[in-house]
Prior knowledge:
By secondary structure, this protein is of the alpha+beta class. 44% of the residues lie in helices and 22% in strands.
Amino acid sequence: MTPERLRQIGDLYEATLEQPPERRAAFLREACGDDRGLRQQLESLLALEGRAEAFLEQPAVELAAASLAADELAKAAGSISPGVQAGPYRIDAPLGAGGMGKVYRATDIRLGRSVAVKFLSPELKFDEAALKRFQREARAASALNHPNICALYDLGDFNGLPYLVMELLDGESLRDRLASEPIQPDLAMELALEILQGLGAAHAKGIIHRDIKPANVFVIAQTRAKILDFGVAKLLEELPASSEVEFPTDAPSRAGSFSARQSAAWGRSPTCLRSKLAGKQ
């Protein structure tokens, strides 16, 4: 770049800064004319200026807090690995991951029992909505004790990350099962009844799951279904009889919404669910 060009950029940069913020874009268009390269260089310099001002104006305590939060996230994310102990639970191996966090196979060293430990994702550690969903799952699951619902054993905190300790299931999700092979009608009926019995037990406790889909049902021992993930559950007593319970729209073969009271009746009608599992609807 020639000295003349540098001088031109410097002069225009200073002149632009003297303009009111709302006038700077128009000033640049007029001053640069058809010289797009000159305008781009000036816009880059002004963008850097804006970021520097924002940094200087931000209170030191906020900068320090953001830095500490980033350090904590890095620490939490890197500290969960096989051999690490979270409370009385020794992490053995990763099992899977989802949008809310990761699940690990672990051992309860007090009882010598294998369990599944679900950690909230470090990126969601300061997300109020995610924390509320995690807590809602813990409250709902802890109130239920049924062979068709995955049991919750414990909850805790590790390096600032909340975790849930659940029954370790040996099998596959219904989503994976459906993707691998069709389900025979008789087995589909058995699984449908298992799912609906679990939902019925939840309804009896006044809990509406609201997110029943193949990914949230686990199949063990070929014919035993276990319902997972009560993260978006609602208490029936919190809803008026005429209220609509909204369901996520990304799950296949499922109605968008229905009456909260009608949902319990749906649990007594397995024919539709059986047909869907068997691939007939």
